[in-house]
Amino acid sequence: MRHFLTLKDFTKEEILEIIDTAVEIKKDLRSGVYKKELENKTLAMIFEKSSTRTRVSFETGIFQLGGHALFLSNRDIHLGRGEPIADTAKVISSMCDMVMIRTFEHSMIEEFAANSSVPVINGLTDSYHPVQLLADYLTMLEYGVEKDAVVAYVGDGNNMTHSWLMLAAKLGFELRVATPKGYEVDASIITEALEMSKESGAVIKVMNDPKEAILGATVVTTDTWASMGQENEKEQRIKDFKGFMVDGLMMCLAARNAKFLHCLPAYRGQEVSADIMNEHSEIIFNEAENRLHAQKGLMVWLHKQNGK
Ligand code: CP
Ligand code: NVA
Q1: Distance between CA 198 and CA 241 in Å, rounded?
Q2: Which structural domains are found in the chain, ordered by start?
Q3: pTM score, whole prediction
Q4: Residue 274 and residue 246: Cα distance in Å, rounded?
Q5: Which strands sit side by side in the sheet containing 150-154, from one edge to the other?
Q6: Alpha helices in the chain (DSSP H)
Q7: Which residue in 184, 176, 173 sits closest to 221, CA to CA?
Q8: Active-site residues: which are they?
Q9: pLDDT for 308 beyond 80
Q10: Residue nearest (by alpha carbon) to ligand 1 atom 4
């Protein structure tokens, strides 16, 4: 059973196959063609955290493929009041064809997957957000910046950063990560990324100086300073992340015509200035829309992989 929990479980070729599938699906949609590749299939979507993009893109995506989505918040199902993860996984996977989960601890999704008889997709955990990176790479491809990319991630060492590390390490591009002191990425994930880079030729650099990271970068990206579940730390983080906002001065250091990506939701005046959001709005909202196409590609690919 192939699940989609982190990018590290996939080869470069497989990631590119998923992206190719997404490109085809997006092309079809633009010409009004809806291939019902998941007709009569159901996708259970378990949300233990909020979402705009992930929910709308998965629900719309499975519908466009001929299937149906079930939105299950932890207020509605027994998981939220103590039914074991393993029991929930066995029950849901006995009736549905795929499961998408957004949750806190990554171990929850691993336990669910271990007990599921159908593919499980990570829709964000505290550790990783791999579906977002499929959309981000699709966007890089569309804007022609995937070749010899030098990506600068400036901000919190979080689930997005970890997934950028995995993508760079697998596909073999340069990634510079700048976080404030005390907000570095998980050391074990850096070790894994460096190990994988030996094969792909990726260049991974971690630092605490955002300007050093952005200098000459062809793609600049960031994410919220306080992720879901860290709301109480927001005020402290705003102080600790001083000097890390991606603004016009910062973007001046990047390569000419550098692109700016943001997974959204964005907090203007914190991790990014309103000016930079406005200047790069076309690519940012394409990136958001690409969640739909990338995840349709992923669901079709996973379905085929699992021999159905
Ligand atoms: N980028 C992203 O995952 O957005 P949502 O939290 O709105 O799903
Ligand atoms: N790091 C953010 C990403 C939101 C899409 C969070 O986990 O809240």
Answers
A1: 32
A2: 7-129+291-306 (3.40.50.1370), 132-287 (3.40.50.1370)
A3: 0.98
A4: 10
A5: 203-207, 174-178, 150-154, 219-222, 259-262
A6: 12-30, 53-64, 85-95, 106-114, 130-142, 159-171, 187-200, 210-214, 234-240, 248-252, 274-279, 281-305
A7: 176
A8: 102, 129, 132, 223, 263, 291
A9: no
A10: 53
